[in-house]
Every structure is written in C-alpha cells, then in structure tokens.
C-alpha cells in the first residue's frame, strides 16, 4: 500500500502545474520584474503631465546608435538669439531602470532649457536595467557624445544641428542617474575633452546626482521617509542596475569606493552640482563637492533649501527652478570664454 501511495504521489508531483510567476520588484508602476526573470514595462510614463509645446522650440529625433536602436532628441529655439548656440546635454534620470527622452516631464524641461539657455539641447536615451545592467548606460552616454563629434567632423552633417550649434561650447548635464553618468563622462573625457576635437566640453552640470555606497549617509538613514526618492526605491534601483554580484561600492555607484579611480589627480573640468535640501542623496552630493574642492577642482555646490529630488522637472515653473536656470546660464557664460 505504501509503495502504491508513493507512486501516486510521485506521479502527481510530476504532472503538477508550477505556480505562476510572482512580482519581485516594482518601480513607479512602469517596471515590474517577476520571479521567472520576465520583465514588464509600461508604454506610458510614470508622470501624467501634458506636453507644453507652444512652437517656440523646434525638436526632432535622431538615431545615434543603430546597433542598439538608441535615439536622442534635439531641441533648438525657433528664433535663436545668435547664429551659433552652445550645446547642452540633458541626460534623463530614473535610477538607470526607467525614464525616456520622450517622457513628457523630460520633454517639457528640455523646452525650458532650449528657450531659457538659448542653447541646442541634446537629450539621449540609453539602455535600461535590469535588461541591460551597468555599465551599459554609461557606454551609451559616451556614444551619444561621440555622435556629436561625428556631426562636427562630417562632410555633410545634419544641417538642422550644424547650422546653429557651436561645437566648441558643449556642456554635459544629467538628472539623477544622468548626473551620475555626467560624472563618469567627465572622468572618461578629461578636462578639455581632447579626444573629442573639434567638440570641446566646457563643463558639467550634475542635477541631483545619483551616487551610492554600502554605508548609509546620515540623511539616507534618518531623512524623510516620505521623500519623493525614498530609501527603498534607491535600494531597488541599485539592486536592479549594478552588475550581478557587485555591491553599491562599485565604482559606477560610489565615486570614492575602494575600487574607484583616484579623482585627486584627474582634470575633470568645471562642475556645477545641484541638489535639493530634502533629497536623501544630498549628503553624497555635498561630500563629492567638498572632496573635489579640497583637491583643487573647479567645482560649485548649490543646495536648494526645502526642495526634493528632481524638483526642477516636477515643477519647472517654481521659483527654485527659475533660480536654477539662472545658475546654469551663469555657469555656461563663465565657462564659454
């Protein structure tokens, strides 16, 4: 009898239907990762805001990496203030896991940048994690800058861009994860960006840069739990984006980690670091700026009291956002000479 029961049990086990996959990670309602490693992405952005296109800024999309089918979005004022304008990169955020150049909040901010900076804006996409873990995004950011160099040296460049862009006045900016990418591009390119000639990168703007580390900062540990970018989401983004088997002291995450390059003797070019006073990443941005300043780098740190992570795209018309635009304008002017 016992043998028969065991046989029936084994047969039942063999024919049993496995349980359906269950959700193990979720990000802002637009990315879901399941227990069988399958991934769902929403075709809609996580920010439900209208696109505010009044025609004062022209824009178009261009493929800059055919291998990975990556596009960037170009913007320029419809009536530019001069014949040649600086080029300003805006690399979107999203913890390396979500976001797009085409999301309305990104597009609206690029309209503001093009109009108020009187600049050509380059907003590249990049491969997202967890399908493409780091350093894929950093490599794509570099590819988007090499694309600009190719335009600057082409016999027949894209006239829409080349007729108005001053390739000798390029500034690389990034928001959150994009700010992290801007740092790594500064390291890769070096001061003056000699390897990009005739393109010359004059400076970098890190907007709420997304840095991390295995040891919590004071503000990460004890800051507001209701923060727009809370500690659970920060941890989730890193868990999904860093190389498998690595920790958040990986060089891409922590600029001062045990295996990170020594920044003390590097020429990184001028840097402007912007952070909100209520951003849980505040202490890391401040520590970054203080260390580089101690090493003699040309770096400016500005903290907007009471503002949260990404305040400038959440409400680009707010007084702090307007003040930030003035700071960026000043930074461009000072480093264009």
TrEMBL record:
Gene3D superfamilies: alpha/beta hydrolase
Domain of life per record: Eukaryota
GO terms, molecular function: hydrolase activity
Region feature (Disordered): 1-23
Domain Alpha/beta hydrolase fold-3 residue range list: 89-312
Pfam families linked: Abhydrolase_3
Protein family per UniProt: Belongs to the 'GDXG' lipolytic enzyme family.
Protein name: Alpha/beta-Hydrolases superfamily protein
Organism: Perilla frutescens var. hirtella (Perilla citriodora)
């Amino acid at each position: 009898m016992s043998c028969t029961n065991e046989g029936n049990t084994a047969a039942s086990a063999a024919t049993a239907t496995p349980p359906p996959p269950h959700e193990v990670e979720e990000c802002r309602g637009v990315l879901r990762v399941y227990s069988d490693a399958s991934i769902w992405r929403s075709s809609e952005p996580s920010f439900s805001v209208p696109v505010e296109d009044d025609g004062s800024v022209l824009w178009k999309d261009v493929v800059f990496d055919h291998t990975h089918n990556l596009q960037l979005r170009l913007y320029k004022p419809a009536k530019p203030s001069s014949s040649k304008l600086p080029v300003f990169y805006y690399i979107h955020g999203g913890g390396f896991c979500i976001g797009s150049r085409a999301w309305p909040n990104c597009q609206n901010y690029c309209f503001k940048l093009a109009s108020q900076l009187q600049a050509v804006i380059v907003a590249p996409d990049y491969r997202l994690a967890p399908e493409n873990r780091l350093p894929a995004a950093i490599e794509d950011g570099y590819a988007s800058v090499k694309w600009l160099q190719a335009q600057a040296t082409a016999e027949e460049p894209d006239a829409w861009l080349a007729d108005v862009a001053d390739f000798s006045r390029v500034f690389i900016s990034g928001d959150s994860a994009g700010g992290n990418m801007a740092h790594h591009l500064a390291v890769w390119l070096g001061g003056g960006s000699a390897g990009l000639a005739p393109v010359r990168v004059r400076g970098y703007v890190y907007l709420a840069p997304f840095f991390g580390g295995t040891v919590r900062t004071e503000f990460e540990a004890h800051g507001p739990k209701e923060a727009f970018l809370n500690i659970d989401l920060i941890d989730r983004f890193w868990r999904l984006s860093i190389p498998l088997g690595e920790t958040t002291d990986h060089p891409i995450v922590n600029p001062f980690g045990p295996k990170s390059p020594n920044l003390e003797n590097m020429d990184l070019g001028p840097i402007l670091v912007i952070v909100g006073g209520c951003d849980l990443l505040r202490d890391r941005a401040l520590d970054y700026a203080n260390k580089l300043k101690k090493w003699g780098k040309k770096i400016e740190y500005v903290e907007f009291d009471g503002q949260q992570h990404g305040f400038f795209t959440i409400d680009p018309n707010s007084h702090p956002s307007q003040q930030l635009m003035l700071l960026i304008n000043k930074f461009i002017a000072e480093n264009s000479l």
